[in-house]
Design goal:
47% of the residues lie in helices and 13% in strands. By secondary structure, the chain is of the alpha/beta class. The longest helix is centred in the first third of the chain and has 20 residues.
């Protein structure tokens, strides 16, 4: 009877390789994987083999024909060591999937957004009626390439960009935020619009985010102003199908992004774009966020 994991003349077994891959693609902390295996690390050859496997799956997923979605949410998220991840989420009913993601080793920029938007355009906008994002000039310029689709400011980010720059106390800011946000939730265009006028230039701090020049409140208010209310232009059947917040920001997606970041903190060292690409694919696959 053979009690060994290894076959005769072999130094590795398929059972151990399978176990090693399961650990590598799990949500276990890297230090715990080392402890379980009693190794300094997964072997370099095994790591490369696994990354090649998952990057191949990633590229296949990008080229796979996806379904049609009512709402698209796009987001750029900064990760450790100078990497930026661009995500495209598709939302249909209660179904939320990551349809595409791009990893670059630099800050968010218009060149990379162009790649993301061209991918959406190539895939016929995934059938979307509205795209939600924290609209900035470098993104808005690219989004205008998409025809017959509403562009919606993420209202959470829009309100926050005003509130966090104010001189008021934390309690007052919280009260302002909830009152203003509720006007959007109630589709009260008039009150949501007039709320911008509640604040004067002197209500804002002189400095924030290391910027030495005070931002012009009127310029802040008027930047893509109409895009704050695009969700009101959706067909009535879509408005009835979705909760209002899903058509003007989709907080669920924001929660998913936080979950991604928390997951990747457990395996936070990336040696290359391919490594982060592969680890994100593992994560999305494990969490069920990829279209089957």
């Amino acid at each position: 009877m053979n009690y060994s994991l290894f076959k005769k003349y072999e130094r590795r077994s398929q059972e151990l390789l399978n176990f090693e891959e399961k650990l590598y693609s799990s949500r276990i902390y890297k230090k715990d994987i080392k402890k379980v295996l009693e190794l300094s690390n997964i072997s370099e050859n095994s790591r490369k083999s696994l990354l090649n496997k998952y990057n191949k799956l990633y590229n296949e997923y990008l080229n796979k024909k996806k379904g049609q979605y009512d709402i698209i949410k796009v987001d750029a998220t900064y990760f450790n060591y100078g990497y930026t991840a661009y995500f495209v989420f598709g939302i249909k009913g209660k179904n939320v999937k990551v349809l595409y993601y791009l990893i670059t080793q630099r800050d968010e920029c218009s060149t990379d957004w162009a790649k993301v938007i061209n991918h959406i355009k190539k895939n016929n906008n995934y059938g979307a009626m509205i795209i939600i994002s924290d609209l900035k000039p470098l993104l808005k310029t690219q989004l205008l390439k998409l025809d017959k689709i509403l562009l919606q400011n993420c209202i959470w980010h829009r309100i926050y960009s005003f509130i966090h720059r104010m001189k008021f106390s934390g309690k007052e800011k919280k009260q302002f935020f909830h009152e203003w946000y509720n006007y959007f939730l109630c589709c009260d265009y008039s009150r949501a619009s007039l709320f911008f006028d509640n604040f004067k230039q002197e209500d804002f701090r002189s400095y924030w985010n290391e910027e030495k020049n005070k931002k012009d409140i009127e310029k802040m208010k008027n930047q893509y102003y109409d895009d704050n209310f695009s969700y009101l232009g959706l067909p009535l059947d879509i408005q009835e199908q979705y909760r209002v917040k899903n058509t003007m920001q989709n907080m669920d997606v924001e929660a998913y992004i936080s979950q991604f970041k928390n997951y990747l903190k457990k395996n936070s060292f990336y040696k290359s774009i391919e490594e982060l690409q592969g680890k994100i694919y593992i994560m999305l696959s494990n969490l069920g966020y990829l279209e089957q």
